[in-house]
Amino acid sequence: MPYRRLPNTDSARVRALKTIVEQGEQASDILSLPYSLNMLSKARNFLRRFEAAHRNYKVCYDEQSRSSAVHHEKSKHARLYVSHFVQVLNLAILREEIPREAKTLYGLNPDNFNLPDLASDASLCEWGQQIIDGEQARISQGGTPIYTPTIAKVKVFYDTFRESYERQKNYQRLTSKSLDEISALRPEADEMLLDLWNGIEEKYMDIEPMEARLDVCRQFGIVYYYRSSEKRRMAMQKNQTQLDLFDDLENE
């Protein structure tokens, strides 16, 4: 006996609800439907809400995905220039061209010549600003600017990254909000489909044979699944039917 399963994706939920609404709207005899007009009206109104929330989530997610590829390139360049600048600063200090204590202006430990952690966008955002502010503070105190790269060039790539980072965070907030909205509607969608499918199966429970009954229910969007053993048995029956047909033709 095949079993049914409620949709496990939002797209499948939309399809299932749409099928039920379309069947109701196309029915020549409304009273013959396996669900009431009130239930049909509820399904139609809920479908509008659920479909709008699903569409909004997809738009937000797609925008975030498209922006993510561009943002990745901008963060890569900013990370390269900030790390390169710190390396040049450390070399200048080792050559005693810049006093070791100047590192405190950048938020760096004078005794630690490792690069700061720039792995995440958040840390790059924080350290990039500190390095820019530190270099400007050192120059304002009479220090010689670092030229390879200049802080102005670092700032160009950092500012581009910072704008992209804020935009990406905004996309993430919108996507998260839209996901919360669609997630809040899923239990109601599943409960409504469960009630509708139960009513549909109850309406046509007396139809025989079983496959004819399932075919009628499938017209209303119910999806049935066969277990592996059932699939094998059906395949064997199909093969046997083909063999019997072949034997009949041979015997004619």
Please outline the helices and strands.
Blueprint: E1 3-4, H1 10-26, H2 37-94, H3 121-140, H4 151-203, H5 210-218, E2 224-225, H6 228-251
Helix pairs in contact: 1-2, 1-4, 2-3, 2-4, 3-4
What does this molecule look like?
By secondary structure, the chain is mainly alpha-helical. The protein is 72% helix and 2% strand. It has helices at 10-26, 37-94, 121-140, 151-203, 210-218, 228-251; strands at residues 3-4, 224-225. α1 (10-26) packs antiparallel against α2 (37-94), α2 (37-94) runs antiparallel to α4 (151-203) and α3 (121-140) packs antiparallel against α4. It is rod-shaped and about 95 Å long. The mean pLDDT is 90.
Q: Roughly how many Å apart are the termini? A: 37 Å
Shape: rod-shaped
Total of helices: 6
Structural class: mainly alpha
Question: What labels describe this entry?
Answer:
6 helices, 72% helix, single chain, mainly alpha, two-stranded antiparallel sheet, 252 residues
Brief write-up:
This protein has 252 residues and is an all-alpha fold. The chain is 72% helix and 2% strand. The chain has six helices and two strands.
